[in-house]
Amino acid sequence: MADANRKNGRGEIAGELRTRYTRGYLVPFPVDPVFFADRAARTFFDQVANKGAVMIVTISSERPARFNEMKRRLEGVRHKALTQALRRLKRNGLIARRVLATSPAAVEYSLTPLGHSLQTPFRAVYDWSIEHRDELEDAKRFYDERQSDCPPMES
To answer: Which long-range contacts (CB under 8 A, 24 or more apart) does 103-107 make?
Structure first.
């Protein structure tokens, strides 16, 4: 395995152990190799499974959409953030970009077959969030109330 001999500046990776210096000693600590920075799962979460990408895939699942249509439907999203999210999705093979022969020229985005395959898991997460919306709001409210009751930490 290539990971067994790779160094990353914090120590060497050896199977599922990395080493780091703690109080002057080289100490091994366990890590989950699924989340190493160069692994597919980590890349997926960094590049695709984020708020903007989920919303774009959801919008594009209905039919191809133009940039400004997406921007209008994704209330509050900035032009730059939408552009970057679309580029990441296109780079990962989830969105196709097509220039339309209109005057002025227009561009529309549509899901690729790989992008369509994300609809089922994204829909499940969306349904879960709706089903547990009240519990999530209660938890946030409870947390915020407890934070306001705690005195500030001294530095």
So the answer is: 106/66, 107/66, 107/67
Rounded-to-integer distance, Cα 80 and Cα 67, Å:
11
Q: Kindly report the backbone phi and psi dihedral angles of residue 127, in degrees, each rounded to the nearest multiple of 5, phi listed first.
A: -60, -40
pLDDT in tens, 43-89: 777 777 777 888 888 888 889 999 999 999 998 889 999 999 999 99
Order across the sheet with 95-100: list the strands.
65-66, 106-111, 95-100
Its pTM stands at 0.64
pLDDT averaged over the chain?
80
7-16-9 Cα angle (round to 5)? 20
Nearest to 86 by CA among 119, 112, 104: 112
- Name the nearest CA neighbour of 71 among 54, 59, 87: 59
Alpha helices in the chain (DSSP H): 40-47, 51-62, 67-73, 79-91, 113-116, 119-131, 133-149
Pairing of strands 25-30, 95-100: unpaired
